[in-house]
Design goal:
Blueprint: H1 4-26, H2 33-38, H3 49-59, H4 63-76, H5 78-85, H6 90-105, H7 110-118, H8 120-146, H9 155-206, H10 208-213, H11 223-232, H12 241-244, H13 252-283, H14 291-298, H15 301-337, H16 346-360, H17 363-367, H18 373-381, H19 385-390, H20 399-417, H21 433-455
Helix pairs in contact: 1-9, 1-15, 3-9, 3-13, 4-5, 4-13, 4-15, 5-11, 5-13, 6-13, 7-8, 8-9, 8-15, 9-13, 9-15, 9-16, 11-21, 13-14, 14-15, 15-16, 18-20, 20-21
């Protein structure tokens, strides 16, 4: 009998080539900066509420995220899936914060807001963190797709990931954010349909009751990561322009509704996909760092193909959004920080940025980096953004407040990555105990740092912000 691996090349390459052709043909082109950087149509109209909701929903269903959710489900049962799904509460929370920034403080974007409230150096530091985040999104998502064609580091793995990158790059270059939002709607429909097929395969095996009751709520059984997620919700979404860029392209109330609905849908989609990992746990299937792929191989050719489609559609939506956010950050926002207008070459510079990050962004994938670290460590590094945005109403103009908070978080994140945080900071004996302690104590330190200049009478009050 022919194994799923024998058919893998046919299904993967065939679907990927067809996927690429369809996306390039149907994606609209952008003729001006409004379409390329802000997603407006040819008449200047912003994206509809429905399109924005679907775009936010699928753009945050990263391929690495559904893989992580399944891996955590395999490790901790439903508690692991719930822990990872909690990150999706970031979406409605970010929508609420952006709504407040727009309606109460006149913000037109996070970077202009930071310039007016905390100074250009603060905005530059924030932009640098964004670029690191977006860089991580490239390799961590292409690596997941590559995992459905070969083992990590193999020629097939790398070739599949690079071909996938090229396909997404082609239609991203065509229309920027406009094509990204348009294709997101298609990819969202494809993702939901094939996720439903996967669940139809696995849920009847053990039944919903067994899947939803597997695991236990304890710090050493995944609850520590759940608490980490709840803490990082306060800061994590603000360093993701894939999300925040969409917070400024439609009317405030339309945006808020889209963020709330997309967040709720995303939460349940991730929780549902974690059942793939719970299924693997009950079946005794070794996750081997990629529970969905291992379960898919046990499902036969059709099941493997369905899982591949889920990953390709989710990874594509994230990657095209990543490319468009990178182009806006480098070609549109960095010139503003330097005191220059983007100029007529903004789109060209945005295109060159996409190409550069498509090439350089896959280097960690080739080197075999751990995709979970792309979320948890970067989330720790930006815990200092929580007071920066949540307490901004109490600030007139205080660069010191930003830097004391932001760099405290960055330092703790680097120390955690280097293994230099003392074990005494751990809360509980679980795998994520030290991560939990670092985030809890770190958030307290960042908040104290932010409030220190205000306690000394520096930068108190409320001010309007730059509309650069």
């Amino acid at each position: 009998m022919t194994s799923p691996i024998d058919f893998q090349g046919v299904f993967f390459w065939g679907f990927l080539v067809l996927f690429g052709i369809v996306m390039v043909l149907v994606s609209p082109s952008a003729k001006d900066e409004g379409g390329f950087f802000r997603g407006t149509d040819a008449t200047g109209r912003p994206a509809s509420a429905w399109a924005l909701t679907m775009s936010i929903f699928i753009s945050w269903i990263f391929a690495k995220s559904v893989t992580n959710a399944a891996n955590l489900g395999a490790a901790y049962g439903i508690v692991g899936g719930l822990a990872y799904a909690t990150y999706w509460l970031s979406i409605p929370f970010a929508g609420w914060v952006i709504y407040r920034l727009r309606t109460r403080e006149g913000a037109t974007g996070l970077v202009p807001f930071l310039v007016g409230k905390y100074g250009r150096l603060a905005a530059l530091a924030f932009s640098a963190a964004i670029l690191v985040r977006l860089y991580n999104e490239v390799w961590s998502n292409t690596a997941v797709v590559g995992g459905y064609y070969g083992d990590a580091g193999s020629v097939a793995f790398i070739a599949a990931a690079l071909l996938f990158t090229a396909v997404v790059l082609l239609y991203s270059l065509k229309g920027g954010l406009r094509s990204s939002i348009f294709t997101d709607v298609i990819q969202a429909v494809v993702f939901v349909l094939f996720l439903a097929l996967v669940l139809v395969w696995i849920v009847p095996t053990h039944g919903p009751a067994a899947l939803l009751s597997e695991g236990r709520f304890a710090l050493d059984a995944g609850a520590d990561l759940l608490l980490v997620a709840l803490l990082q919700v306060l800061s994590y979404p603000f360093h993701d322009p894939v999300l925040t860029d969409r917070g400024f392209i439609t009317r405030e109330k339309t945006m808020l509704r889209a963020f709330v609905v997309a967040g709720v849908l995303g939460f349940f989609a991730i929780l549902a996909f974690s059942l793939v990992g719970v299924h693997a746990r009950l079946e005794g299937i070794a996750a081997a760092g990629n529970a969905p792929a291992q379960v898919a191989r046990a499902m036969g050719v059709a099941g493997f193909f369905a899982m591949s489609v889920v990953m390709i559609s989710s990874a594509a939506s994230t990657l095209d959004s990543t490319f468009t956010s990178l182009s806006k950050s480098v070609a549109h926002e960095l010139p503003l920080l330097a005191g220059r207008t983007p100029g007529e070459r903004a789109i060209r510079n945005g295109v060159l940025t996409m190409i550069a990050f498509a090439l350089l962004g896959n280097l960690p994938m080739i080197a075999g980096a751990d995709i979970l670290k792309a979320t948890t460590l970067s989330g720790t590094m930006v815990i200092g953004l929580a007071p920066v945005f949540l307490l901004s109403r109490w600030v007139d103009h205080s660069p010191a407040a930003f830097h004391l908070s932001f760099w405290t978080g960055m330092t703790l994140g680097v120390l955690l990555a280097a293994g230099a945080i003392p074990a005494s900071w751990a809360i509980g004996s679980g795998k994520y105990g030290l991560l939990l302690g670092t985030n809890l104590y770190g958030l307290a330190l960042c908040t104290a740092g932010f409030l220190l200049p205000l306690a000394l009478g520096q930068g108190r009050g409320t001010a309007t912000v730059s509309r650069a």
